Amino acid sequence: MKTTFLSHPKVRFGLVVVGFFVGLAVFGPWLTGTVLGIDPRANDISAIAAPPSSEHWLGTTQFGQDVLAQLIAGARGSMFVGVLAALIGTVLAIVFGVTAGFFGGRTDHILNFVTNLFMVMPVLPLIFIVSGYLQGTGLWMIAIIIGVFGWAGGARTLRAQTLSVRNRDFVLAMRMLGESNPRLIGAEVLPHLGGWIASMFLSAMIGAILAEAGLAFLGISDSGAISWGSMIQAAQSQSAVLRGLWWWFVPPGLCIALIGTAAAMLNFGVDELSNPKLRSATRRVVRRTRRVERAVAADARTA
Amino acid sequence: MTLAPQLTEVAAPTTRLRVPSRWAFLTRRLGFYLTAAWAAITLNFLLPRLMPGDPSIAIVDQLQRVSGRQLPPETLVSIQTLFGDPDANLGEQYLAYLGQLARFDLGTSISRFPTPVADLVAAGLPWTLMLVGTTTVLAFVIGTGLGVLTGWKAGGRFDAIVTPASTFISSVPYFWVALIALWVFAFELRWLPSSGGYDPDLEGPAFWLSALRYGILPAATIVFSAFGGWLLGMRNMTVTTVREDYVLLAQAKGLAPSRVVLRYAARNAMLPSFTGFALALGGVIGGALLTEIVFSYPGIGYLLYDSLTKRDYPVMQGVFLLIALTVLVANLIADSVYVFVDPRVREQG
Amino acid sequence: MSAPARTRSRTPAAAGRPANEVVLDVRDLTVEYIGPDGAVAACKDVTLSLRRGEILGIAGESGSGKSTLITALTRLQRPPATTTSGSITFHPADGRPGTDLVGLSARELRRMRWSTMSIVLQSAMDALNPVMRLGDQFVDVLRTHYPDLGRNGARDRTTELLAMVGISADRARSFPHEMSGGMRQRATIALALACEPELVVMDEPTTAVDVVMQRQILAQVLRLRREPGFAVIMVTHDLSLLLEAADRIAIMYAGRIVEVGTAAALYRDPAHPYTRGLRDSFPPLHAPLRTLQGIPGSPPDLRRLPSGCPFHPRCPVRVEACVSTTPALVPLPEQEAACLLLTPEESR
């Protein structure tokens, strides 16, 4: 099972890209400072808004800052918000979804109602408003706000999955044996939801990175921190688009899109591995089968 | 012919009674949305009161600075009703708040004093409704259509190109796509206007044509960024549905492929799109707001941005309340459509 | 794929009957699942023939290749399954020359579907489109194959078909979820007869309904196949059902046919040890109850088939040669069976 998981091309692509950005977030300062010798905040007066060159691989901003250095520093900001918000969101989704699904009845009724409320609330505008009140707070606060409001979709999935796990024989048997509920959830239910929780975490992380980028773009994220969103916002406010300074605003957007794609691919791959119907429809399977069909047809002609 | 009909018809009427009618389902959903609307209003009431500092005092200070004189007592009362009154208890405040909302009084804008918030929001809402409404429908139609095609021929060449491309596109932030579109089509190629929603110098039909022209780039941005999500969902649902027995049977019947795809596979694969509508719409709304900002489009997204940067709390709150209520109405519409496309109305509300 | 010619000369079709006595002639059909590590044969050299109006039962445990055989016969298979060798020849009743379904294009197949061969699937709940009214699911197939019928003609015919299985005409307006399980199953049988096919393939037609309904449905199939007249291939894991209903029975194990013969012969005197095991593991519907004996072990993994006779690890009467030699079907007076023990005795 492990080997099929890692040999799946979509999973592999996703893991490599997500791993790359996590590495960039962790080792970014060391990489920019020691290896490349560039500083995201230093202003090079000799190169203002300069296009990519051997000195500045991705060019410079209006303020003479190295775009590559900013991109690497931005990875840390964006990934920090993504991971923290996803952690909070996942925990909340588990609390609401698993509890509702496991206990059923009245508890389920109330929790499910709250989940549904959050589902139909326009979460992104809500996050904008709350951050608007707390203008200029740090990335910590931003991540908490995003996590606190963005868990409903995950909770719904987990509730449905818990319902199906709860009624399986082994859980019923453990219940009969008088196992306590928290232990049942921890030892029997959660392990079976591992795949769903992991995929939820990934989606939540991407959602949070996008939300933070949106907040930064609105100018209500942490004004001191560098993130991919704040890079785009800075470019936009300095009319980089009008002046065609594409190297300033294209790379951070590409990074967001790339990590989003990677996470989607990972989820897609996991879906394909767990759903045989999807698996039999992959390019590899179809091509392999067609090749054999053609060979058989060719044999029939020559025979 | 030989079978006794009474023997075979027994089970059916009882099953029929158990199935709730469409109207019962819709009534239940309506009840839920009314509760959700109440929750949104209450959230709107609580937000400023829960925030650190005292927004109501800040607003009064700012208004006095902007207008340069003492505020009239009725404006003061209105602000305290909306944003918190240190002297009144929460219950009284809440009742007064509801009363004021019932008169469509959302307070006064700070940055555009003394324009009432309700007027500002009412001016922006039609633009946003048009923009988001059209683009949501377009993105849904394009994404779902392509999703059926890729899902039906899953593993084929078209699927192998379109599906990964859509995965990438659906991960791109809206406002970034907007910036690229602005750069390429408005500044480099100069095909389309770069900002605003209409040409203010025109009137009559020419004005509407200009509105259409100004709307192309924002609309294209939203459709481009949003269709991928629908496509991916629909593709996987189609792949799963195509392997259902009833699609197999439809093929065995020798029906035309178009009929098998549309009436049997796609028709069923579409159903989860309606139940997942709320979540998808949330993403589109957020993205559309940011897109409006890039194009300075005169909708409520731009209004929200303007109010956020100017700390115009009354406008902020008003915009949020309106977005929340509009989303609820959109969801109710999606549910109503769902009831007519799925004869097995869902049990749970 | 070179199929050994051992079984060819023994099929009833080749045994001198006129060509139009036989409706379907399957020869050396091999269906493989193409995996990353090579192909797995889920059906291997299957040879069958079906006479007009006959009920041929195919029995086997799950994983024996029954379902694969159905999708191959009806040409409904999808990747990774593919037919790698063999032929499926359909002989029309009017004496025209037979057509090999394997070589047909999608368009040619579509024209032949339902009016020559139709199918009844295991679960009627899943086989009917949940968002279409029952009548519309009849009308669309009728109008596809009989374009001249018109909307009203198709509706009248639907009423007629439903009446044949005891469903009242107003049920045409119902959605599948509004009907009981038994009614749905009868509706799919009526649907299968819509275009007067010469052959109906039934995949576990009665497993999804209760015992009473099972009897009813079976009785209906037996009656209808004489009245409109059609042949049936009935695939099931329930041998006792076939012993009652089928004229002839083929037993499948690990993708091969291990025994085929008249129902009576297989009931009285099963030649293959697997058939004996199957017979003794089901309670007969009418005969006095005998001691039930299961077959020890479980069906083999098709990816790792045992050498020699695939049944040898579970076989109570295996000999040393079973491990190395794959048995061919051996002709016996009333049946054929593939077991090494049979060869020396019976071919004398």
Automatic annotation (TrEMBL), chain A:
The chain crosses the membrane at residues 12-31, 79-103, 110-133, 139-158, 193-220, 245-270. Pfam families: BPD_transp_1. One of its GO terms (biological process) is transmembrane transport. It is a multi-pass membrane protein. This is Dipeptide transport system permease protein DppC. Residues 75-267 form the ABC transmembrane type-1 domain. SUPFAM superfamilies: MetI-like. It is found in: Cell membrane. GO terms for cellular component: plasma membrane. Keywords: Cell membrane, Membrane, Transmembrane, Transmembrane helix, Transport. The keyword Thylakoid does not apply. Belongs to the binding-protein-dependent transport system permease family.
From TrEMBL, chain B:
The chain crosses the membrane at residues 30-47, 127-149, 161-186, 206-233, 277-300, 320-341. InterPro entries: MetI-like, MetI-like_sf. One of its GO terms (cellular component) is plasma membrane. Residues 125-334 form the ABC transmembrane type-1 domain. It is found in: Cell membrane; Membrane. The keyword 4Fe-4S does not apply. CDD domains: TM_PBP2. Coiled coil: none annotated. It is a multi-pass membrane protein. Pfam families: BPD_transp_1. Its main location: membrane. It comes from the Bacteria. GO terms for biological process: transmembrane transport. Keywords: Membrane, Transmembrane, Transmembrane helix, Transport. PROSITE patterns: ABC_TM1 (PS50928). Belongs to the binding-protein-dependent transport system permease family. This is Oligopeptide transport system permease protein OppB. It comes from Occultella aeris.
From TrEMBL, chain C:
One of its GO terms (molecular function) is ATP binding. Keywords: ATP-binding, Cell membrane, Membrane, Nucleotide-binding, Transport. It is a peripheral membrane protein. It is found in: Cell membrane. Residues 24-279 form the ABC transporter domain. It holds the Pfam family oligo_HPY. GO terms for biological process: peptide transport. Belongs to the ABC transporter superfamily. NCBIfam families: oligo_HPY. This is Oligopeptide transport ATP-binding protein OppD. The gene is oppD_3.
